[in-house]
Write a structure and sequence with these properties.
This protein has a two-stranded antiparallel sheet with strand order 1-2. It has one domain. With 64 residues, the chain is α+β, with helices and mostly antiparallel strands. It is built from one helix and two strands, in the order αββ. Strand 1 and strand 2 form a beta hairpin. 17% of the residues lie in helices and 23% in strands. The relative contact order is 0.17.
């Protein structure tokens, strides 16, 4: 399941599907940059469900 978060990974490879396979990779990197995690919770024939967690108090608690 972790392979879906790899850069340029696509679930379906055909001419009718759009995208380059960066969406989940970029999403996970953003969540991780904030000290959290993005995981695949469910993968069924009708779709996928993802869960992300973020810390209540980030490690680098700096005021803007």
């Amino acid at each position: 399941a972790g392979m879906i978060f790899e850069r340029y990974r696509r679930a379906v490879r055909n001419d009718s599907s759009r995208g380059v396979g960066l969406g989940l990779h970029v999403s996970r990197q953003i969540v991780r940059a904030h000290g959290g995690e993005l995981t695949l919770a469910e993968n069924t024939s009708s779709g996928c469900r993802f869960i992300f967690t973020l810390p209540v108090h980030p490690k680098n608690n700096q005021e803007a």
